[in-house]
Amino acid sequence: YAINPIVGEKTEFEGFDVAFRLKNLSAVDELKHNKEVGEEYDLALVDTDIPGFLTFEQFKNADLRYVVTSYERSCLVKTREVMDGIYSTTESPGQLEVERIILNSVECSIDDEYLNMQLTEHLVVWPDESYHLPVDEVDLAIKINNQHNGKINLKGLSRTYRSLITDICQRIVECDRRTVRKAIRKAKRRE
């Protein structure tokens, strides 16, 4: 467990280095450069809900961009604040393709078209379909247990959740679906 008041905090979790309480994306770069000599990260996943955490240029240079939100009004307001913060760092943004994941998705009067309208001034190219993760009590229970146990347990996740994880992992690591499913099965056995 490492603490750096300027950069943030980093800990190892189930074989992954996890950094938190970072002020901006530059702090991630600082942590990457402080890694022991000869060791490199295969990839870095950045999850933030902090407006101003990253610049438009940093967002644009990411290999993949996902916006994770829900239909809840407070979550949509927060999503807009984060996107406003990103786009405020440039005067001439170009179009960016951004995938969208809707958490706790339910049938309601809010849909993807409404979500697109919330960010019309930003030049975002949204996919035809968002990833939807419906409310599932078992998935929520597993998430809560994982948080409190400090472990990643994939056993018992809904088919929808496993499929979403598989799709996203397949895109991130750029491999075939069979390879990702094999890795997920191996992770489940390890528990």
Topology:
Layout: E1 2-4, E2 8-13, E3 16-20, H1 25-33, H2 56-61, E4 66-69, H3 73-87, E5 96-97, E6 99-105, H4 112-118, E7 124-125, E8 131-134, H5 137-149, H6 159-173, H7 177-190
Parallel strand pairs: 4-6, 5-7, 6-8
Antiparallel strand pairs: 1-2, 2-3
Helix pairs in contact: 6-7
Descriptive overview:
- By secondary structure, this protein is an alpha/beta fold.
- Helix content is 41%, strand content 17%.
- The protein has seven helices and eight strands.
- It has helices at residues 25-33, 56-61, 73-87, 112-118, 137-149, 159-173, 177-190; strands at 2-4, 8-13, 16-20, 66-69, 96-97, 99-105, 124-125, 131-134.
- The strands form three sheets. It has a three-stranded antiparallel beta sheet with strand order 1-2-3, covered by helices on one side.
- A hairpin with a 2-residue loop joins strand 2 and strand 3.
- Helix 6 (159-173) packs across helix 7.
- The chain is globular and about 50 Å long.
- The relative contact order is 0.09.
Q: What tags apply to this protein structure?
A:
191 residues; globular; disordered N terminus
Give the % helix: 40-55%
Taken as a percent bin, the fraction of beta residues is: 15-25%
Largest sheet, spatial ordering of strands:
1-2-3
Summed up, the helix count is 7
Low-pLDDT runs of 5+ residues are 1-6
Strands, total number: 8
Overall geometric form: globular
Biggest sheet statistics: 3 strands, antiparallel
* Helix-strand pattern: EEEHHEHEEHEEHHH
Give me the Rg, rounded: 18 Å
Structural class estimated from helices and strands: alpha/beta
Ends distance: 23 Å
Mean pLDDT: 85
